[in-house]
Amino acid sequence: MTASDGEIVHFDNVGLRYGTDREVLSDVSFTLFPGSFYFLTGASGAGKTSLLKLLYLAQRPSRGMIRMFGADAITLPRDRLPAMRRRLGVVFQDFRLVSHLSAFDNVALPLRVAGAPERDIERPVADMLDWVGLSDRMNARPATLSGGEQQRVAIARAVIARPDMLVADEPTGNVDPEMAVKLLRLFEALNRLGTTVVVATHDVHLLKKVPESLIMRLDKGRLSDPTGALRYPPRRAAAPSRAPGTER
Amino acid sequence: MTGLLGKLRRLSGVGEAELVPQARLSGPMPWVIAIMLAMTVIAAAAGLGLRNMARSAALELEGGMTVQIVEARADVREAQARAAMEALRAMPGLVSLRMVPQSEVDALIEPWIGDDAASGRAVGAIPVPALIDARFGDAATPEAVARLQRELRAVAPAARVDAQSSWLRPVFAAMVSLQWLAMALVVLLAMALSAAVLLAARTALGTNRDTIEIVHLLGGTDVQIARVFQRSIAIDAAGGGAAGLVLAVVVIVALGRRFASLGTGMVDQGALMLGDWIVLGLIPVAATGLAMITARLTVMHTLQKML
């Protein structure tokens, strides 16, 4: 099976190298299904961030094939990328908040980019900031926020537009355990609403907190897939809650 | 109505104005535009003034012919001048006719000849041609001059006819050259303005590269980002343009007064008309449009290189 109905992402023998260096990702093949919750694990330098960059369309692969939302993401015309990106929510490892915007405006950014009218922005953004515990820091600029607060703003920005797929790079790295669990609950809630969630982490304790999650393990740029289940998942009638063959 | 307002908002980039920091009317850009705009308006005003001057002078001199009766004997000269006047008066298309009085002719040549009667070099001691100023409705073409010459020779053999415009032909040619020069200056300044905007847009893109990348990754389009820069540059250009226009108007009015005080008819004819002032007033508008288009093309071109 190379691409099945209902898949949201399909990677086939994808390789990525920066310049003329050796490949940071080699022969990566897997399929993600709608409504699934995936953890991407691996040691530092294993290629997690590079794989996520391919997932959130910040990078084109050096070789291989990527299908996203039913379209060939490699040959997709550049002017169709924004529409595809608007279906994604991204939590960057370094947060990437816009420094001259307040916490409120940073969270509102995906909605404004999507052309939502201001009257449809204020309430959801305020609610979201309240949910991540930042209602009193709404007007604060990123420079005045702590690392944990910045991370929560980044997460709020990633989920505010209810994306089809959420890609998060170490989203709980800078928050206390209590907030980490709270944020995971938010991801799970989104997941239950149908959002596919991919969380890159090297925190093994986090994996246990989402029992329904599936594990993708990267080792030196190669996806560990001993049974081939990530590459060739059994055909299912509906969106899976757990990809068979993925092991914890 | 709401849809139209929405479209206007999108066109002006208001909805995305917050995406990148807006350094409105700060930094050197508005001042560079102001200076270039002032020079453009002054150059354009000079071109328009020269055009007015040339048109007006050409209209005035177009049908003008000067008849000289070149005869040393005063009595014969006067008789031929009278005969020529009679003949001219009977000609069709004559608009005005005037015998230039001897006193006026003497005054014209007095600076060169002098008026020292004792030395024999006084104006009155030298025979000078009689002058007749005739103006016809039709242009004084070489054919018309030759025809008039032939007709007058019959009654005044000493008559010599010249088209008045021929005396000023080199002046008109110089005026046309100056008009082209003014136009070339306007074009060059427009190019310089575009180059300045291009550099400013590139610098702003470099400064805001991180933000642009984030907006791109959140699904922002090139057009959305270009609108933001376009709007920012438009504000700079409009502000600088207004300042430049005010500066140029002050210079033009001051120069106009200075030239008017010279009291020479030709310079007076170069005064700017209402239509000219409207054209000058539209230059900042055109410059703002040019700056916006340049910014948009520059930003779009640069963004095309990003994924």
Ranges of chain A with pLDDT <50 over ≥5 residues? 237-248
Q: Which structural class best describes the helix and strand composition of chain A?
A: alpha/beta
**So what's the oligomer here?**
heterodimer
The most extensive interface between chains reads:
A-B, 28 and 21 residues
User: Looking across the biggest beta sheet of chain A, what order are the strands in?
Assistant: 6-7-8-3-9-10
Cα radius of gyration of chain B in angstroms: 31 Å
Largest sheet of chain A: 6 strands, mixed
**Unreliable segments of 5+ consecutive residues of chain B:** 8-17
**Strand tally of chain A:** 10
Tell me the strand percentage band of chain A: 15-25%
**Total of helices of chain A:** 7
Classify the helix fraction of chain A into a percent range.
25-40%
> How many β strands of chain B by DSSP?
4
Terminal-residue CA separation of chain B: 36 Å
Mean pLDDT metric of chain B: 82
* Radius of gyration of chain A from CA coordinates: 18 Å
User: Helical segment tally of chain B?
Assistant: 11
Shape annotation of chain B = rod-shaped
- Spell the H/E element sequence of chain A: EEEHEEHEHHHEHEHEE
Order of helices and strands of chain B: HHEHEHEHEHHHHHH
Q: Tell the overall outline of chain A.
A: globular
Report on the structure:
The complex is a heterodimer of chains A (248) and B (307). Helix content of chain A is 27%, strand content 22%. Chain A contains 7 helices and 10 strands. In chain A, α3 crosses α4 (122-131) and α3 runs parallel beside α5 (147-159). Mean pLDDT of chain A is 86; it is low at 237-248. In chain B, 68% of the residues lie in helices and 8% in strands. Chain B has helices at residues 2-12, 29-61, 74-89, 102-113, 142-153, 164-167, 169-207, 209-217, 222-260, 265-268, 274-303, and strands spanning 64-69, 94-99, 130-136, 159-163. By secondary structure, chain B is an alpha+beta fold. Chain B is rod-shaped, with a radius of gyration of 31 Å. In chain B, strands 2-3-1-4 form a 4-stranded antiparallel β-sheet. At the A-B interface, α2 and α3 of A face α8 of B.
